[in-house]
Amino acid sequence: MVYIPKFVYNMGIVQRDALRTSIINYIGLGLGYINKVVLLVLFLSPEEVGLINLILGVGILFGQAANLGSVFATWKFFPFFQNKEKQNFGFLGLIIIVVLIGILIFTSLFLIMQNEITYYYQDKSELFAEYALWVIPVGIGFVFYLIFDGYLRVMFINIASVFAYELLLRVCISLIILAYGFNYISFNSFIIFHCLAYFIPALFLLIYIIKIGEFHVRVSSIKISKRFRKIIVKFSLFSYLNTFGSIAVLTIDTIMISAMVGLEATGIYTTMIYLVSALQVPYRSMLRVGAALVVKYWKEKNMVEMNRIYKQFSSVSLYIILFLFSVVWINRLEIFSILPKTYKSGISVFGLIMIGRMVDIFFGINTLILTSSKKYRIDLIFTGVLFIGVFFLNLLFIPSFGIDGAAISTSIVTLIYSFLRVGYVYWAFQLHPFEKSQLSIILIFAFGLLTLSFFPAKEEFDIFLIAFKTTALVAITVLPIYLFKLEPNTNEYISKVLHRFIK
Asked: What percent of the chain has pLDDT over 70?
């Protein structure tokens, strides 16, 4: 039996590790912001920004395809194979073999379809057709990061992965951008080095795994019943298809905008998507740690604790995302004034995308609950609805509204998808994320946004005005929620954060 420390089994570890990973994430976020919103915008044209973001987006999709479900098999079933004396039966070695097969399959498919890719992009995004093959090394680097990250995560080691991807990778990318910006390398070399940099996190984690003595690749025999083997294959396959579909949904906007509008529009759209993604850092940090708790509660059939953590996650996530969105939205003109005027057309994209993402984050842990349950197969249907909906609405809206059309499509379908899934989780398991106290959070932030909409705004960067409006937002929203204890879960989280910073 695998020993897991008792302290892992409570919300405290989620908040504690989430805080640590959030700190690293936010340092990385600062570097990412400098890279994507300052350096890339300063040294590259919007078309070139669109090119590099399209390569990365399709590369990540390639990586998700090439893992062939091995990431999900690790997350769900590694505890059954974990055995120090038997070197985990060579579980990692088996996963690496599966990934190498996946890389071979999807590299071959990509090369076979190269002419079709060139034809699809030659009209609006000819530059991508020239560099499309660099999707492959990005995808290979990313998929090895995924399997090493998953391997460490099931052993409750999160910091190394976050450091490798959020800090180390971004520092290297900063250096590559600066080398290009100051004419030390050509644009062609910049693309090459930028794509190869995605091997760095995987190499770092590989060295780390070797150092801690967990690099066991010699596959040992282990008796697995036919029934259990069938469960492993089915779960991995469905999770693989489901997650691949989810990543495809995140990438399809970029792919379609590039082909239907052009790389310049892609550069603007993907920059806005990055800003939206930056606001999700605390949620992703909590989700990373909380996944182990959800699996544990399913194993113990402890629906009381499952219900409790569902509500806690939702309350804290709602509070954090509303606060971060509000800070950006009340200062949007000042913040966007840093960017070239071309990018100001993306403000509406940011707002539209955030509507869907905020609801999805509020319901977010239902993904973990559903995909780790016996009814995990149903989530594939929801993902299929999401993908098909975004695809056809993009065909309808992008020709008429450009990047705003893509944002409208994504937001509409995300809302429908989120409500369908939370409804199903309630119907199937009698679990829901709602508490009456959450309404007070929503109303207070709505009041804060409405009040601050009457404050002055400038289409130029003014740090004092930003600080003034942000302070006013805190006074209107954060202080009443905390002082009057309007939402217990949120108050507990704020208290723990303050305690860690004060002591």
From this structure: 87
